[in-house]
Specification:
One of its GO terms (cellular component) is endoplasmic reticulum. Pfam families: PIG-P (PF08510). By secondary structure, the protein is mainly alpha-helical. The chain has a domain at 10-49. It is built from four helices and no strands. The radius of gyration is 30 Å and the shape is elongated. The mean pLDDT is 88.
Length: 128
């Protein structure tokens, strides 16, 4: 089975073009529904359409939901994060302990987490 690639393929181009045209047709139908008087639509034989108030209510509701998603996302982030008094903030199952091996001075040491005592020493204890 071939590896999936994000590069364009003919199938994706066809689907994309179809969705592009569908979006324009649906937007045109929305504009017809929102702006053309009901009497004209009834003369064309188009009898069932939702009430005109939904032409304003649905986009307003969509914008409101989009804006409220930011608050919801921040709230869920705060609910799922441990409190500041928790030991999980200092050390958890993903902590990488620094190795005791010595490395040459010009090399970059491997990635590791600093202990809270080392962080406090570096931040708050200064040689005067």
């Amino acid at each position: 089975m071939p590896e999936h690639s994000p590069s364009p393929t003919p199938e994706r181009a066809i689907y994309g073009f179809f969705l592009y045209l569908l979006a324009f047709v649906l937007f045109f139908l929305y504009l017809v529904w929102a702006w053309v008087p009901d009497a004209w639509l009834h003369q064309l034989g188009l009898d069932y359409w939702p009430q005109k108030q939904w032409a304003v209510a649905l986009p307003t509701f969509a914008c409101f939901c989009f804006l409220m998603s930011y608050s919801l996302y921040f709230g869920l982030t705060f609910l799922n994060s441990p409190p500041l008094t928790s030991r999980e903030i200092i050390k958890d199952s993903h902590t990488i302990v620094p190795s005791d091996r010595s490395f040459p001075p010009e090399s970059i040491p491997p990635l590791a987490d600093l202990s809270i005592t080392e962080v406090n020493k570096r931040l708050y204890l200064h040689d005067s």
